[in-house]
Sequence to fold (209 residues):
Amino acid sequence: MSDARSRLTAELASANPLASNTWYIVKHPAARFATASAVLLLNLFVYFGDPASFSPSKSYGTFVGDIYHGLFEPDSPSWLLTRLMVLLGFTILGFTLAIYLHHRLLRGHCKLVMFGYDNGADAARDSLADQDGAFFVVVVVVGLTCWIGLKCYNFFLLYVVGLKNDSKHITDEGMHGLTFASYNLYCQGILTYVCDLYTLVAVVDQVGL
Fold:
């Protein structure tokens, strides 16, 4: 353990001599695991302890609901095809932006190792390591792009095409049937638990606990 600490401290000191001791504590396996575990427990408390998670009141269900109903909201074939083509276009745009963000900004400009930057410390580095974090960036950026795109689509139908009196083609109409319980506890809660467990597995795998 002392050898591992000395090696990690030396690596951190070479990167930033003024912060080596602080970064050793932050990057210590126990600190990483404890932080990820604390976040998981706090999320469990928030979702299961919040009365709103069990409320039958109607919920708008934004973001997750927008994308879900953008894909599955029933409509006539012509309107459904139009909506799916819009989603496809924004998905391609989001993918392009995500790759640019990952390669040029996070890895190239910011030089973040977690996003594939090669600091020269690993002589046996796998070439696929250049793509570290790319999947996460793509999922986040594509999701945000589709969400914003569907908002623009709805705005276009309402105020440009003039469907204010015929809103059945608006993609989020079905979301008003969701309740706080179904949205907060099932949609957001399950997604949060899966992400927290993934984080714990990733921490254990990387630090070798």
Summary: Residues 60-177 form one domain. The mean pLDDT is 76. Helices lie at 2-15, 20-27, 29-49, 64-72, 77-109, 134-161, 180-207.
